[in-house]
Amino acid sequence: MRPFIGTYENKVDQKGRVSVPAKFRAVLQAEGYASIVVRPDPERGCIEGYGMDRLERLSDMTPDIVNLGDPNAAPAYQILAESEELTFDPNGRVLIPAWMLEAAGISDSAVFVGLGRVFQIWNPAAHATFRATQLRPAAQARGTGA
């Protein structure tokens, strides 16, 4: 699959529908997908998205029986149980569940960030803060000053 690249900001309507960037849709549609898979990313405070192929690979790596008392089960639970498949409407929009938008602090607009095999969906202000506090200091430490 071609990588998801670029950063795009799109409006979110009152129902929670948002247009997936055309370049992201093209990547997915080239693989025969008419949907995205999303899950909350509580560590970063955003939503992570990808194609069904990635979810299938993650599922294949998960034991068939997950003992929820097992500390190693938490990542599998978070990835599989909290994932949602969202189908594109005729306008290229998806309906993100309200609980997921709320968890990421997304209301009237969302920033899509391509990161290769995955993409993230952010509240614009939270994404700006993340870039300022996490990415710039790391770039400066490497001497790139990005």
Q: Ends: how far apart? A: 28 Å
Mean pLDDT: 88
Rough shape? globular
Q: Which secondary-structure class do the elements indicate?
A: alpha+beta
- Low-pLDDT stretches: none
CATH topology label: Chemotaxis protein chec
The description of the largest β-sheet is: 6 strands, antiparallel
Element pattern in H and E: EEHEEHHEEHEEH
Task: Indicate the radius of gyration in whole angstroms.
Answer: 16 Å
Per CATH, the superfamily is Transcriptional regulator MraZ domain
GO molecular function, one term: transcription cis-regulatory region binding
InterPro entries: MraZ (IPR003444), MraZ_C (IPR035644), MraZ_dom (IPR020603), MraZ_N (IPR035642), MraZ_sf (IPR038619), SpoVT-AbrB_dom (IPR007159), SpoVT-AbrB_sf (IPR037914)
GO cellular component, one term: nucleoid
Domain SpoVT-AbrB: 7-54, 83-126
Explain how this protein is built.
This protein is α+β, with helices and mostly antiparallel strands and 146 residues long. The chain has one domain (7-142): Chemotaxis protein chec, CATH 3.40.1550. Helices cover 36% and strands 27% of the residues. The protein contains five helices and eight strands, in the order E-E-H-E-E-H-H-E-E-H-E-E-H. The protein has a six-stranded antiparallel beta sheet with strand order 1-7-8-4-3-5. The chain has a two-stranded antiparallel ribbon with strand order 2-6. The model has no long low-confidence stretch (mean pLDDT 88). Belongs to the MraZ family.
Summarize the model shown.
With 146 residues, the protein is α+β, with helices and mostly antiparallel strands. It has one domain (7-142): Transcriptional regulator MraZ domain (Chemotaxis protein chec, 3-Layer(aba) Sandwich). The protein contains 5 helices and 8 strands, in the order ββαββααββαββα.
